[in-house]
Fold each of these.
Amino acid sequence: MFLNTLSGRFLALTILFVMLAEVFIFVPSIARFREDYMMDRLERAQIASLALLANDMIDADLEDELLENAGVFNVVLRRDEVRQLVLASEIPSPIVATYDLRDAPAGTLIIDAMKRLWNPADEVVRVIGNPTRDAGQLIEITMPTRPLRAEMLDYGLRILILSAVISVFTATLLFFAVRQLLVKPIEGVVTAMKSYAAAPEDARRIIEPTATVRELSDAEHALKSMQTELTNVLRQRERLASLGSAVSKVSHDLRNILTTAQLFADRIESSEDPVVTRMVPKLMGSIGRAVNLCESTLAFGKAEEPPPALNRVTLADVVNDAVEGERLAASEDVQFEEEIPAGLVVRADPEQLYRVLSNLIRNARQAIETAKRGGVIRVIGGECDRFWTIEVRDNGPGLPLKAREHLFKPFQGGARKGGAGLGLAIAAELIRGHGGSLKLVKSDQDGTVFLIELPKSIVTEVQAAR
């Protein structure tokens, strides 16, 4: 239906408001017309009385003709403080009202005009005014109201017709102007949204702002930004899905290779070389973790990270394994410090906790080595009433701004140039699986501090996500 459209409603409202404005014009106009009509009768009556004053003797027929031309029944002049009935005829009915037009307020004129317009009775009224050209102190006439009302209705009808024509013409012009300036651009935005919704992955369907109206231009730019971001997210999800499938396949084959390597490591374990004897446990542990990681990756490709197998774990052992693994890969400028209270035991999955610490320590090491200024990485353990806490501190250059804005988001929160940001995303997910949290405490030119909080009480996954 046309009135349910923006154009239709705007057209209807325009006509309504223009007609309302014309009503406010009509009321004072009709009052002014009534005043002018009665002033005209006063002037005619004055002219007719001048004929009598010029010739004291006129016959009755001429007097009636003068009164008829003036449209009045009687004419009274006040001259030289003397009130004189100049022209007179029979009054068909009693006088019902007297109107004094000398300095009459506008409100009074409007009210009297509306009363006359709504009163169809033919009545006789008295009108008082000032004679023109100082022809006396006062002129007074009696006149019928029917001709006055008929003239007022005719004038009002012409005003309404003219108002209607102006309203329709104005509304039509505004209709086409608004349709060209607003409705068509809005329809273009709607069409662009529908086209984008049909294939949001297609970047060619993203709207290109063309509106010249500031508000519509702002809306188009906001829509373009939203569509661009959504398209990037959809593409990223598609790449993640493809990457997950590829990683699962690689992990499957890599697990078989590592299983073979594990068999060879078992044979090496029987060597009597003291260096080999000391290194084999580390090698076996590394291969075992790699096999577990491959199996976990396969599980992740099917659903999500497996739930942690919570056990009582000596924190110092896990931290030492993670630090030793990174110490072998670190340059001489990187120092490691472990501040773990002796005998501190936490409830955690040792393999997953190792992965979290290894990721955080590796990021810190790489940041320090990238800065080429040397540094210290400290792992500090502690506890309070509710949590076991682990801090990983470094005095490196701090995280880039982009990494801080998209922290813990895969492929967005990379801590170093070329990094994918998967390490921090995986670490945060593993800690959430424990019911705890991984937080960035600070990151600036003086270094970075990450805080792990592991709850001492068992919490649900929903509570951990809060």
Amino acid sequence: MNRETLVESSATTSASLSKPIEIYVFVDPLCMNSWALQPLLRRLQVEYDRYFTLKIVLRTSLTKTNACCFVNMDDAKACDKSHPAFPSIALKAAEFQGKRAAFRFLSKLFEYTYLKKRNVLSFSVLVEIAESLGLDVDEFILDFSSHHVLRSLQVDLHLANEMEVEDAPSFVFFNENIEDEGLKVNGLYSYEIYEQILEEMVGYEITPDAPPTLDELFQRFDSLSTLEVAEIYNIPEKSAERELKKQLLLQKIERLPLSNMTLWRKRHS
């Protein structure tokens, strides 16, 4: 799992890194554990973003992808096709509009799948997600039906094979020395485990950044649960709920009550 073999495959790898650690996170959009990973990743970004760059990689079955019937552009907007590979393809199509667009799309995929119980295998639902995020929908549909997406998925598969990643979610940590082996962590563990690994990889004591204001937090992430907010600010969940309700009264955010949790998101005028 030496990074020298990955240089040509990864656009994020460079001879000189502005941050000491690279973290590759392998996810499956249809995996419950990958969804459970999201709050952990967000907190890691909020507290230790200055120490690492983050690359989300899909652990997608190439067999499923090859079997996928690409959408015909003439009837794309009215298409009602479904396929297990569609969420991965859609995520890559979103990624063509920027890294932040890809993060937001993945978050919304999880929300639609596990909280709203929508069928994200459906092309029409994926277009709906793109619209809800304010992406360029015409560009999204064009990219979805292009073979550039398949090529991008193949690159992810190559990375998974090179790093010997068989499961999602999985982390692979690299330090600044391109000749060093990466540190692979399969599965999902407590937040403190990832803090410890990051510190060991950096090689000196790391300190968390002060959390941003709630306004800044909701600028960064489209929606957050009460528990996520509590963990980011290291306060009891009831205290987090009180602060969120204050923001609600000020009409800065809105509440999205779901069957098993409450989500909060920035209010759009």
